[in-house]
What does this fold into?
Amino acid sequence: MPDYGWPILVVLFVWWFSTGIVLFAVRSPRETYRRSLWLATGLLALGIWGIAWSAAEATVTGAYVAFMSALLIWAWPEMTFLMGYITGPRRRPSPAGVGFGRRFVFATQALLWHELAIVAGGLAILALTWGADNQIGALTYLVLWLMRLSAKLNIFLGVPNLAEQFLPRHLRHLKSYFKKARMNVFFPFAVTAATIALVAVVKTAGAADASPFVLVGYTLVATILALAILEHWFLVLPLPDAALWTWALKAAERRAPDAGGEPHHFVPTPSLIPATSTQRRQ
It folds into this structure.
């Protein structure tokens, strides 16, 4: 298998499996949330250690450790958000009939603490890797953050596939901030910019003089960016992506069916590793 094949397979598996684990945890009974949060916090600590250790390791191993560590750090604000612990100061629906400006302010308030938690994670990585040889962790986190932010803006401005029924019951007030539309003016610019960035990252990974570290590290980043772009297309195209995580949803249903009475077809984006995971719906 070519040298770039293994990094691609690793990202695909981690995206699929870790997203399923998050779905399983979020759809499980609320009395299990505290245990899941402690586990996520332990993984956060492990991720911080991994970023610090790998910062000076411009090697293939260092690239993998930095990438995985960035995902572990990213997982913590995702879990705390989806479980309803860290969301924002506004926890009620948007009033009916408000204008664009007020709806934007209200939507920002509904997610503010979550956004600040994401920024805090990014600043921690930046501090640990400033001037270091290995920037794969920082690049990975940056891709996740920018693509997640783009997904949120697209959902706010309007896309066909809002999938608001996929929100956990305790977050369903957020669907009042969504807008259903055939398309918005921001979407093509966002996808085009992300695709241009993807081409640049792929060229760096595939350069003739690329070291094994650069080849593996930038292939990891390129793959997670490609998945985030794919998740953007899920917002406008009727693709059956829910089937990928049926195993996690059914396992959670067996533990405790959702009291909200809505179908369990909650589909994330590579946010967690997953904009881009679940956030495309938020």
Remarks:
- The chain has eight helices and no strands.
- Helices lie at 5-27, 33-54, 60-82, 100-129, 136-157, 186-205, 212-234, 246-255.
